[in-house]
Write a structure and sequence with these properties.
250 residues, alpha/beta, Rossmann fold, Arc Repressor Mutant, subunit A, 2 domains, five-stranded parallel beta sheet, four-stranded antiparallel beta sheet, 12 strands, 39% helix, elongated
Amino acid sequence: MTTTDRKLRILCVEDDPQMRSFLLAQLRARGHQVQTVRDGAQAIDQAAIFEPELVLLDLALPTLDGLAFLRRLREWSKAPVIVLSARDEESVKIRALDSGADDYLTKPFSLNELLARVRAAMRRADEAARLRSGAAGGDQPRPLYRRGGPDGLVVDFAHRQVRTGGKEVHLTPTEYELLSELTRNAGKVLTHRELLQRVWGPDYSAENTYLRTFIRHLRRKLEPDPTQPHFLLNELGVGYYVPLPDGEEA
């Protein structure tokens, strides 16, 4: 079954009753299994019971705000999270992405745009799952990427594992997809536009905030000193790259 026609378990965390009813009706009409909750505390309990494949999340929630819910969810769930918020400030978007969101959609939005964002998020999650199960395609240039010896950065494509300093690092599906694109193209500068289109999709080519935020988040997780990166490097004004793996230096 393709991402387009796949039926999902979706958790909608939204305190506005009209928006909650709209999402419930539209998503169920398309065959999805949907649960709705109005506050963050209820959402934590429901996420544990329902085990959603996708979460639609408002930020302004009673009891437990959206960012706090998101941070707690990310302690154990890799389900893609799309934030639906009336706030359009870049600082708010960055906090949401830093807390583990995969996408951010500003209200008001069209139903078609929301459905497109859902499909894009699930494509990324499905690709991460395929890599995790060892079912990646034959275009992988190497079974793993290693830079800096056994205690450096190791990306195991077959098992979707990332290690640094000898320890496994937890990445969200979007974080892994971004790192995978860079390491599979090691030694090559990928432009901002290329990375946005490959990881998020063609509709995201101008969303530089997404890219900066996720690169910063990856550096915090992977670099010994995020202010002096050794693995995730940038070509000023052009894009990002990772060095060639050990043994393949020019």
